[in-house]
Design a protein that fits this description.
By secondary structure, this protein is α/β, with parallel strands linked by helices. It has one domain: P-loop containing nucleotide triphosphate hydrolases (Rossmann fold, 3-Layer(aba) Sandwich). It contains 8 helices and 12 strands. The strands form 3 sheets. It has a 6-stranded mixed beta sheet, with helices on both faces. The longest helix has 16 residues. The radius of gyration is 18 Å and the shape is globular. The mean pLDDT is 92.
């Protein structure tokens, strides 16, 4: 049973890109322990929504409010949103030369813990290495992978696994997953989905953005929302995703 207090509350949100309104007044709530999926045709504003929630500077929120655990999310800088427990897995993760995956996660983990639990003892590099390798094994990742530069030369599947690994290390309250299933073969999709499912608990929530219902065969959502032309036009349960996969979005776009 989910909490009655929302983890995320979005109210009448409007978002513009270079003066053009892309998201046109959407409202929804996500409670602790819930998994929501936003589906819809390309160009409907799905990625704009989750990037804006994370504080991407290219997007301007012109109206509405967003609360994360009762606090004004829109008043926070992107790093403050991350420290508050918000996480975004990008559709196209950036490559960072010169920074290994392990060093990136070590810095991110310690920065996160410094804010969440100031009294906790900082993990040494050796202890963090063991901690990280345990999570990598769960994702069927070679531990040598941690010594590669972040996302540089990674395949699409490797990038998505690295994003799930980040989630496992950082343990966010709310994970925003932007087309995490994009470019994955069936085996990689299953491993990524298992990684997501292993993080599910009564306090942690997920918002999955996807065009197809494929990942939802492995990660069962509590609620599915259809987003078309910047608006949520219909919502349903997990069975609704299968209906959308079969019928498509034509009835919403015609």
């Amino acid at each position: 049973m989910t909490s009655t207090v929302p983890l995320l509350s979005v109210s009448d949100l409007h978002i513009s890109v270079e003066g053009n309104e892309v998201v046109r007044g959407i409202s929804f709530e996500i409670h602790p322990g819930e998994t929501h999926a936003i589906m819809g045709p390309n160009g409907s504003g799905k990625s704009t929504l989750v990037s804006s929630l994370m504080g991407h500077p290219a997007y301007e929120i012109t109206h509405g409010s967003v609360l994360l655990m009762g606090k004004d999310l829109l008043a926070m800088e992107p790093h403050e949103r991350a420290q508050a427990g918000l996480f975004l897995a990008f559709q196209y993760p950036k490559e960072i030369a010169g920074v290994t995956l392990r060093n990136f996660l070590f810095a991110a983990y310690n920065a996160q813990m410094k804010v969440r639990d100031p009294e906790s003892k900082k993990l040494s590099p050796i202890k963090f290495k063991k901690f990280l390798e345990g999570h990598m094994e769960e994702l069927s990742m070679d531990t040598a992978f941690a010594e590669r530069f972040l996302n540089q030369g990674f395949s699409g599947g490797e990038k998505k696994k690295a994003e799930v690994l980040q989630m496992k290390v950082l343990q966010p309250h709310l994970a925003l997953l932007d087309e995490t299933d994009s470019g994955l073969d069936i085996d990689a999709l299953r491993i990524v989905a298992e990684g997501i499912n292993s993080l599910k608990n009564a306090q942690r929530s997920f918002l999955l953005v996807t065009h197809y219902a494929r990942i939802l065969e492995y990660v069962t959502p509590d609620y599915v929302h259809v987003m078309v032309k910047g608006k949520i036009v219909e919502s349903g349960d997990s069975a609704f995703a299968l209906h959308l996969e079969k019928e498509g979005y034509e009835k919403y776009t015609s």
